[in-house]
Amino acid sequence: MVSPTLQPAHLIERVINQYLTRVESEVCSVGCVPDKVSTFYLRLPYIGHYSGVTQKRIRHLIKRYCNNLDIKLIFFSFKIGNLFSAKDPIPSNLRSSVVYKVSCADCNVGETTRHFSTHILEHLFTDRASHVYKHLQQSESCRNLCSANCFSTIDNATTSFQLKINVKSTG
């Protein structure tokens, strides 16, 4: 028989047996009183009918191997949405609060809280106070080679304080 996890049932039972044997030896090695019942809680995903079958098998194994253990099974609902995000990732050129690097002769590192693509265009064409803009105006070889592809993000941050720390650690 194959379980819903696509594992053979005998393999699952063997792993459970090994676990329970180890748990029993650990509990009794600590110095438990044989007449005292120790309670453990196991949290398992609810998978319909198979959850009840699993519960019966675990209780049978405990009764068979561990007289002084009481295992309580807690089933939780499992949503497929937990496995993946419903949101698309933000394209790197539209991210904000990023630390970036300009791959040019002097390899400038900077940061911006605005969209990365907007900041790149300012560096290349409009922001006359920018160090990158000034460098490109002074160096003809860099001006001819430099484009938006020369800019790459190194890190991002959630706050402006964290952004400043990231710039100092990468710069």
What does this structure look like?
By secondary structure, this protein is α+β, with helices and mostly antiparallel strands. It folds into two domains: 73 residues; 79 residues, no CATH class. The chain is 43% helix and 19% strand. It is built from six helices and five strands. β1, α2 and β2 form a beta-alpha-beta unit. The model has no long low-confidence stretch (mean pLDDT 79).
At a glance:
It is built from six helices and five strands, in the order αβαβββαααβα. The chain has 171 residues and is α+β, with helices and mostly antiparallel strands.
Helix content: 40-55%
| Overall pLDDT level | 79
What fraction of the residues are assigned to beta strands by DSSP?
A: 15-25%
Structural class: alpha+beta
Taken from the alpha-carbon principal axes, the silhouette is rod-shaped
What would you report as the Rg, rounded to the nearest angstrom? 30 Å
Work out the count of structural domains. Answer: 2
Give the SSE string.
HEHEEEHHHEH
Given the structure, what is the number of helices? 6
How many E-type strands?
5
